[in-house]
Amino acid sequence: MDYTQLGRSGLRVSRLCLGTMNFGQQTDEADSHAIMDSAHENGINFFDTANVYGDRGGTETIVGSWFATGNQRRERTVLATKVYGDMGAWPNEGKLSALNIRRALDASLKRLQTDYIDLYQFHHIDRQTPWDEVWQALETAVAQGKVLYVGSSNFAGWHIATAQAEARRRNFSGLVCEQSIYNLLTRDVELEVIPAAQANGLGLIPWSPLHGGLLGGVLGTRHTGKRRGEDRLVKALEDHRVAIEQYESLADDLGHEPGDIGLAWLLHQPAVTAPIVGPRTLDQLDAAVRALGVVLDGQTLSRLDEIFPGPKTAPEQYAW
What is the dihedral of CA 306, 312, 316, 319, to 10 degrees? Predict the structure, then answer.
């Protein structure tokens, strides 16, 4: 396993991040534990979860029960979780008020059976809460030793720039990473999010690296309807069939599985720290690890850009 720095921080994380969103939903507790054990065996030390996963807390509880089995599982894991989503129907049970951050953080720590979070991420931008309030809450959490690093998720480029400017004004370190949807089919972040992240020293953690499975090899497969979002996958295939046919043909020519190519492409992007892979089974985790050994030459990268063209740099994309 290769490791890299998380943004401008000194924290070293694996080039793949284990996403846990399926734990408790598509994958039961025993299989979830087996997947996390296998992740460690493969050198993956970076795990991502969120307080809302698993029907509001279920996934964190499964991760916490795995930590509780010992063998330095917690100490060997860079643990990332998120705050923002509503955890109940009562006021102040969601978003980024200082009150919710304090309560949500303590609740996550309890479910995860740990006394600190390595990376605490804002799951979305909160347009109602001023940055002074948000950063004061995180400064307190860091001072208490409950949080070590802070990240964002689903932020626009200008949100990143504003957050960092406000953090610097308070002499606080601010964000070290941004978690965004990014894959060969969805490259919008190349327009302004990635430049903003790079300019401010943030690592990029792509979620949905295979576009919900569309880049994982779908032609000729039988859709059973069991996969979450199966209807969307079928519709997306209809919309992008020509590109997917060319993509899977290229994968065949290269002698690799399509999913390996999709993950390898992300790993070749200079802004990317670690794509998030969310396996439901051990076989899916093994397939993701396999992609680490795929090297794409310049000709192949150019061909992928032809099949899935991304945007130009801003402002040239929309201005002279």
Answer: 80
Which CATH number is 203's domain given? 3.20.20.100
Q: What are the mean pLDDT values of the chain's consecutive 10-residue runs (320 residues total)?
A: 97 98 97 98 98 97 98 98 97 97 98 98 98 98 98 98 98 98 98 98 98 91 53 88 97 97 98 97 96 97 98 92
Which token pair is 265?
């492409």
317 within domain boundaries: no
Distance CA(22)–CA(285), nearest Å, equals 12
Please answer whether residues 220 and 245 qualify as being in contact, where contact means their C-beta atoms are separated by less than 8 angstroms.
no
Range(s) of the domain holding residue 76: 3-307
In a domain, 319, yes or no: no
205 DSSP β-pair partners: 179
- Our count of domains for the chain comes to 1
Question: Does 53 qualify as catalytic in the annotation?
Answer: yes
The residue annotated as part of the active site, out of 3, 53, 116, 149, is 53
Distance, in Å, from the CA atom of 74 to the CA atom of 56, rounded to the nearest integer, reads: 22
